[in-house]
Amino acid sequence: MPVVTSGISKGQSGKGVGLGLALVSALAFGGSGVAAKPLIEAGLDPLHVVWLRVTGAALVMLPLAVRHRALLRRRPALLAGFGLLAVAGVQACYFAALSRIPVGVALLIEYLAPALVLGWVRFVQRRPVTRAAAFGVVLAAGGLACVVEVWSGLSFDALGLLLALGAACCQVGYFVLADHGGGDGEGDGAAPDPLGVIAYGLLVGAAVLTAVARPWSMDWTVLAHTARMNGTPVPAAALLVWIVLVATVLAYITGVLSVRRLSPQVAGVVACLEAVIATVLAWVLLGEHLSAPQVVGGAVVLLGAFIAQSSTPAKEPAEPTESARPVAAGEAERELSARGTAA
C-alpha cells in the first residue's frame, strides 16, 4: 500500500499549503483598506484609488501576460470573465454600493459569497456539500455581522443592496473561475497557468475601470505628498506601492493558488477572514477601536472557517492505476508462469 499512502500524504500536504495560501491572501486583501483610507482622506476619490490599484498591478504583471500570450487564443472567455467579474466587477459594485448603504451592510452582503459558492457547487455543479460545511458558512456569516456591527447602520436602499449583492455574485465568479486557472502547460489541452489568468484579468479589469473611473480627472499631486495614518505622516507613494504589490498582486496570486489546492467553497469561507483582518489592522494602525461584539464576532468567523475547511474535503488525489500498484511476489510468479504456459 505505499503508493496509496503516499497519495493521501500528498493530498493532506497540499491542503495545508492551500490553507496557508488562503490565509496569506486574506491578510493581503485585508490590508488594502488600511492603506487606501489615508489616501482617500488625503484627497483621492475612492474610485481613483481602485483604478490605481488595479492598473498598477496590471503593469507589474504585464511581463507574465506577454509570456502567456497564447492564453488570448486558447482561453479568451476565461480571461474576460476573470477580468470583468473577479477584478472590475467586485471593485465597482462594492464601491458603488458604499455610496448608498453603510460600509458594514455592504461588506456583510458581499461576504455572502461563500454561501452562494456552496449553492453553486450543490445545485449547478451537482456536487455534494456536507452539512458541517454549510453550518460553517452560516456561522461565519453570523460572526461577520458582529464584526461589521451591521445593526449600527441599518439603512435599506434597494439599489445599494442590489449592488452589494452584485459584488457578492462577482466574488463567486472569482472563486469559480480561479478553480479553472491551474496548471502550467501551454498546449491546447493543458489547463491555463494561474499567473497568466491573473495577469490578463488585471489588464481587462484596468481597461474597464479606466472607462468608469476617468483617471484623467484625478488629482495626481496627492501622490507626491504625505498622507496621515493615525496622525503619523506616511509617503502617499509608499501606501500606493503597498496596495499594488501586497494588497493586489500578492493577494490575487495566493488567492487563486489556494483555490486550486482547496476548493472554491473552502477558500471562500477562509476568505471571510479578510473582514476580520481588516478590522484588526484598522484597530492597530488607524486607531479604530474594537468593541466587544466585534471581538466575539471575529472568534465566531474563525470557528466557522475552521469547521468549513475541516469538513469539506480538498481535491482528492487521483486513484493509482492497476499498473501503478505494487505487485506482490507471489502474483508476479504466477503471472510469469502463466505467460510461459501460454507460450
TrEMBL record:
Keywords: Membrane, Transmembrane, Transmembrane helix
This protein's record includes keyword Transmembrane helix: yes
Keyword Transmembrane helix: yes
Disordered: annotated segments: 312-343
Entry's family note: Belongs to the EamA transporter family.
Name of the protein described by the UniProt record: Membrane protein
Lineage: Bacteria, Bacillati, Actinomycetota, Actinomycetes, Kitasatosporales
Entry-linked Pfam families: EamA
Chain ranges passing through the membrane: 46-66, 78-97, 103-121, 133-152, 158-177, 197-216, 236-259, 266-286, 292-308
Any Gene Ontology CC annotation: membrane
Domain EamA: 18-147, 159-307
Source superkingdom: Bacteria
Species of the source: Streptomyces spiralis
InterPro entries per UniProt: EamA_dom, EmrE-like
